[in-house]
Amino acid sequence: MRTILIGLDVGGTYTDAVLMDNSKVVKKAKIPTDNENLLNSLLTALDPLLEAGRGENLERIVLSTTLITNLIATKRIDPVALVIIPGPGLNPNTYDYKVPHTFLLSGAIDYRGREIDSLDEQEIKKCMEKIRESGIKRAAVVGKFSQRNNIHEEKVASYLQEEIPDLQVVMGHQVTGRLNFPRRVYTSLLTLATQDRFRTFYSEILKLLEERGISAPLYILKADGGTLSFKLSSEKPVETIFSGPAASTLGVLALIPKGETSVVVDIGGTTTDLSLILSGRPLLASKGARIGEQLTHVRSFATKSVAIGGDSCLQIKDGVLQIMPYREGPAYCLGGPQPTPTDAMRVAGLTSLGDEMRALKAMKIVGKELELDPRQAADYILEMTVKQIAREIEEMFVAWEQEPAYRIWELQQRKKIRPQNLVGIGAASPSLLPLLGKEMGCRALTPQDAEVANAIGAALAKVNLRLTFHFDTERKFYCIEENGIQEKLAGVDSLADVETFALNRLKEEGEEIGISTGEEPELVYSEQFNMVRGWRTSGKLIDVCVQFPTGILQIWEEGEV
Predict the structure, then answer these.
(1) Could you say which of 241, 257, 288 is where a domain stops?
(2) Is the pLDDT of residue 525 over 90?
(3) Could you tell me the pTM of the whole model?
């Protein structure tokens, strides 16, 4: 059975696209990204693929985009009022969310979802008046332990919306039900601050696909390597941050032999993205995605994006070469304004990209200040570039080695050993990876179609789903962390009952979002704690996590066997 797929990755420098027929890349495209008009870049890459696949039954389109990452990084997110109900035992002033309109309200829910301190209606009224005076049109309402009882969030949100009809409100329990209040606050804030921009982007893409007669479902890649329908992702756009590094990780997973362990090095024009695959499984960040100095509840691969790439600007200060953490356009040999490592690669004969004479001129400019001839300058620039990337990889290993999954993998090896494979993808990888492998004493691999690996990773990403249940058998109550659902439920009293209920619920929700009935869910963990009153067990607290895991579609795995 044929499966026709399209994968798109809109990166900071290039937009990659592939049309796939099962495990075969039928057509691929790589074009410069217009960061002021991502939609135009996307369509420029997409249209030739649609033409090549005309008459075929297109199964789906999957997109990886830097939209949300760029909005947050450039501080172009929409202003949000932050309404916090922190309860006792936590000083919210120790967490600086850099939100001028932040309001603290009284009231408290305990860890089991019981109200231990009621809301102050006068405080809520004053909060509402200040928000209305500010003119802000969005408010995030987040209470501690709201995932166990959302009554306070619901009451505050309802009042604000009733008094300020055009106010958009998001409640923390709707965004994530995971424990860790500060992370839930920040994740809720970013969700609301990016929703409108993402929804506009979403509607524009749908309109353009409709004009082209494309009815195939549209998905977007999440930070954990799974996919969401575009409609669902418009509710939680922050889930799509770091979808670029996720695409590169899945792309490598598809292009290397099954079950291998490798460091993924995606060297683009603007950044180098690093991630790790352990025995065929991408390493996840146990604490969630880190955005700036703040941790979030966004489930993510353990990745790092380093501000160094083929188009990084080169400067000489006090006779010292500096590789700057930004680009000012394409390489000098491609008509850009500044010398870059790409120009050094051209002069060193590592690439045929761009105009050789302009690359030589760029190296003369740099070499003059370093008192080196053009070829010596090129070699020195490449040496410094490779050393800087190698240092970043070594620093990233320190972080990776703190992850529980890495420690388990290390124990399974029965000796302390680091992965020795470097797998390079991205525009600059074919030139730099052999040098990087030599610098680090590692095996350097550049697989076929590596230049569009991100698009391959997007195309082949599974639709995934993870649900984490918390049951309180005494209160006959349960909640689901990922979607904020809170419901009463009788007749579920044992760990076995809860596991069965959770797996069945996962299958039901999986079918609703397009997960094949042939996909087998897995139990991630389950644990229970007895509640004791007066020397007798009065109930149980039971936590169960089930999932359809992330990964690549079976069609590729079958094609490679």
Answers:
(1) 241
(2) no
(3) 0.87
